[in-house]
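2024-03-11 09:14:02 INFO queue: dequeued item Bifunctional uridylyltransferase/uridylyl-removing enzyme, len=846
2024-03-11 09:14:02 INFO validating residues
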Amino acid sequence: MTNLSGFGTATQNLRTGRDILHAACSKSMPHDFSQRLAALVDRYFSERLAEAVAEGILSDCEDLCVLAVGGYGRGKLSPFSDLDVLVLTDLSEVSLLEGLAAFLFHPLWDLKFDVGHAVRTVQQNIELAKIDFKVLASFLDLRFLAGNNKLYKNLSSKFAEEVLPVAGSSFCNTLWENRQTVGVGMDSVVLEPDLKNGWGTLRDVQFVHWCACIKGNYSPLNEKDLDELRDGEALLIRARSALHLTAGRKVDRLDIERVADVAELCGVKGYSPAKRGNDLLNKLHSAMINVRSMGDALYRESFIKDLRTFIEWSGPISLKSALELFEHKSRTGNPLTREARRAVSNINSEIDISLGDALTLLIKIFEAPYGWRTSLEMLDSGLFDSFLPEFSKVAALIPYDGYHRYPPGRHTLLAVQKCCSIYRDEFEGLENPDGVGLTPADFDILMLGAFFHDIGKGGRAHSERGAEITSEILSRTSFSEPFKDDVVFLVREHLSLIKAARRIDLSDGDSLLEVAGKVGSLRRLKLLFILSMADSMATGPRAWNSWSESLLRELYSGLNQALAEESMHKFDNAQTIAETKAAVMVLASEVMVGDTARSMIEAMPDRYLLSEEPEEIVCHMKQVREFNSAYEKDLIRKPGGKGGKGLNLVRAAQNGGNGRTKIVISARDQDFLFAAQTGALSLHSINILSADIFSWADGTAVNIFTVETPPAETTPADIWARVERAIMYSMTGRLSLDYRLHKKRNSLLTKAKLQNVPTQILVDNESSELCTIVEVRTQDRSGILYGMAVTFSRMNIDLRMARISTTGDSVFDVFHVESAGCGKIEDREYLKELVGALDYALASVK
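2024-03-11 09:14:37 INFO prediction written
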């Protein structure tokens, strides 16, 4: 602890008071924590200034005063808030006060306060406030602390008379423009809000107060609005203070891992941490929505009222009228007045429109030019609760999965908006080579499918449960039965394409036909593809990226081909293989001797010929030829059976600038090879997305990895040569991957992750005729793929394909495996042993 005994009574009082205040937060934080902390600092400045006079640093305080500005000026401080202070003086030489500044602020820095200060005259402040909006903003929250109060009053009056009339309106306009950039693309609350600068948080609270200060009143806000504004501000400040205490530092983004602890400090009760966190976030979201809405109304109806056309309503409103009001807004983009917004938030309980007609109006809103923002305002107003309480119940849930960015309500409306965009960009008005187009009625089906797709959230098997709820809701309408069936189908199957893209081998025609059979038609495939893509996009960047998009599009292309046939017959693999061999032979004859090419082609497994394009195969052949030459030389150079051991050849090519690189590793097929390759890549921080393992009949192994392209600024130029050496050294006993990966995981530079994703291992022997499919879901951490590959190798199991998906802190890996030389693994005891061994291996990776 810093020794502050030499700093005087004021400093000791502040330290003691702060320690006592923090001690009072051991279980629950006082409601007035931020005010009490600000009061302690207020007292410090008053006492410290008196000490400066007593110690002769100042003769008196007639020439200066100390003022709080910014957040501190509002009389509220979070534990690690900025502490902004202005020393105001009428001395012409402000440099004379440098000693006083050191006397006032050095103790605060030693106490770890983040102090920002300035020493200026009244006139300097006025001139600066006219040209610097940051200074202007800080003076809107000016507060006297100690010294000569007349100086403070002089500055306040000059600021009101000379600055606000000149710069006030342009200041508010600039704030509005900057404010509109927060949440672009998703103008709403998020699951992990920035409590200071985020949408609807403390910066928006200040926007309301600042605009009202410059305007002179809070109209069109009423007393109830102002009560809600005060309550919302108090909650946001309390949550931010609790977040600071929980993190032990200044942090403003409330991440999902800390929300339960923050909720407990805020006094939120609940039977579990998840329940407490859910309740706190719901309260915060409600406050943020109210704050944002008030800021919108006050600015629009005060500063740009003559420039906009408003949608007005006074008095009670029915559900039908409210929906028509929002339908008008979705077409025109005109905002509702504050009074109209209050009306739709307090709608009459009497229902004067059928559910079917309400849903029809909702579809029109979704499809309209301004439907996206209109739907968000409908959600924020609580209108959905009037005719679809099932949706409102789900909208308030908080997902703790680590990859959803928004609560279910906002996620759903974003998915609807993405469906509109994808449909218009890729399907509307375009010629369909397959002859199957989407009609306006199909678009309506898509809108409702997207709107209802997550209505079953809140338990397991939410797709099936959602389909049941959707069916019940639509049974209360007069939509046609085929229309209802299509909507229910989309809800039930909205995850099926994403799951299939991650788990099936697209070279396996039977697997494709099985998925195509579930989809049923090209029309439904297109609708399901749009919804699948939109749902993933709306989930956030942890679930949707260029790799997941490529997997989904590749699956869509295969299913489109399968469904385009009038009869769903089996793929003619023999013909495809023969055509590929012929094409490869033609291309290969240009770069190598015909006999060499012919022997290589005959050694290739069927799955390889079905998976790879002829041009790619020829590139692999040239690499194999280069490897074989090096292998033969190594055999001569290293007699006694040591030649060729561990030798491999790594070649990499970036895949079209989409953030992915394809790596082809050629070697002699041998035990532990795939494990050594995955371990070496992991050791060099190469994130593997998928792997295809091909064993040729002549003993050649060609393993193809798709990885995230490593960042150039942090990756050595010879990274692939290093990977190549690491594979060889691990295969020859010169490098222990177990030790190196353990050391890497426990490095001080490695960010620790909370172990909150339980391991699940499933075995599927039904989906593929050729392989056993092993699915593993577990917590993401370095080296887990290596650990599983070692387990497969030790249990004499051959891998044919691996596909790796990471969403948030969770990984979902799918392996297509065979018992060595025996195809599918049918022995139940063998499978049980495999699951146990994988579970043990994953538990050992910490």
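2024-03-11 09:14:37 INFO annotate: The mean pLDDT is 90.
2024-03-11 09:14:38 INFO item closed
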